[in-house]
Amino acid sequence: MNNRFKELQEHCHRLRQAIFRTICHGGGGHIPSSLSVAEILTVLYHEVLHIDPGRVDHPDRDRFILSKGHAAVALYTILAQRGFITAEQLASYGTAGTDLGGHPDRHKVPGVEASTGALGHGLGFGLGMALAAKMDGRSYRTFVLLGDGECQEGSVWEAALFAAQCQLDNLTVIVDYNKLQALDRLDHIVSLDPLAEKWRSFGWETRPVDGHDIMALRETFHVLPFAPGKPSAIIAHTVKGRGVSFMENVPIWHFRLPDEGEMDIACAELNLTADMEPAT
Q1: Which of 86, 208, 272, 275 has a beta carbon 3.0–4.6 Å from 235's, enabling a disulfide?
Q2: pLDDT at position 231, please?
């Protein structure tokens, strides 16, 4: 267990380094929105999802949908870690002709299950996949990672109602609950509190978790579904910009690149060299 924890920690550390390097080299992207989901993606892709980069279209593969598509670079980097895309493809982000856009495109990037970015759509996609699995007698599970601001969308709650009605216990939502939305705090725009109770009232079995605690996430994912006949909702409490001190919980960093001095600080905190390669 201890060795596995260290392995997952290292995967997550490398993921954060790659997210930061890829966005900075690419000339733009959502750094804090990507950093906040690093542990979630690490545990999902290295522990939970039944997937095979050699059989991308296997009918019984688990499905993962990044509904908060603006965190696309986090998805690209974990797909590169798992061998769905190459390091060279990842490095093409931000260049002319790249397949890696600012939002993920399922027609261009292996391992991407849904083209997302228009917030509020991902759960509807996931609902359809989970329902199809039930109707076809398939064993695969569907996971949808939502942004918290995205949960202000009515389409999310329409899908939530229908998923409970259909008793889709093969469907799991993870809410990246970092409490920031674009350039302000969530509760200054449209408050979601009490968020866990809202999902529960819609018929979902719901559990909160520290979204940066690898072992807590691991334990939570390994007891899915939380209740037979009910979809599962994980409310992952996270910090937007986690890992770069001056970005953490600061709304202005939603879409911004560091200047020279900030770059030095970020590289030191992420253990990167001046040319943004891993220091160790």
Answers
A1: 208
A2: 98
The token duo for 234 is: 């994980």
The residue count for the chain? 280
Measure the CA angle with vertex 37, ends 42 and 93; round to 5°.
Answer: 85
Does residue 13 belong to any structural domain of this protein?
A: yes
What is the residue range of 73's domain? 2-269
Q: Which of 207, 187, 189 is nearest to 197 (CA)?
A: 207
CATH code assigned at 105: 3.40.50.970
The number of distinct structural domains making up the chain is 1
Task: Provide the residue type at 218 as one letter.
Answer: R
Cis peptide before 194 (omega within 30 of 0): yes
Within-domain flag for 224? yes
Structure tokens at 235: 């409310």
pTM of the model: 0.97
Read off the tokens for 106: 């399922």
Dmax over CA atoms of the chain, in Å, equals 56
HEC string for 42-100:
HHHHHHHCCCCCCCCCCCCCCEEEECCHHHHHHHHHHHHHHCCCCHHHHHCCCCCCCCC
Query: What is the model's pLDDT at position 187?
Result: 93
* Neighbouring-strand partners of residue 144: 65, 173
Question: Regarding beta strands 180-181 and 171-177, do their DSSP bridges make them parallel or antiparallel, or are they unpaired?
Answer: unpaired
**How many helical (H) and strand (E) elements, i.e. helices and strands, does the chain have?**
11, 7
pLDDT for 268: 96
Hey, which residues does 185 pair with through a beta bridge? 180
Q: What is the mean pLDDT of each run of 10 residues along the chain (280 residues)?
A: 90 98 96 98 98 97 98 98 98 97 97 96 98 98 98 97 98 98 93 97 98 98 98 98 97 94 96 86
Q: Which residue is listed with tokens 């209740």?
A: 227
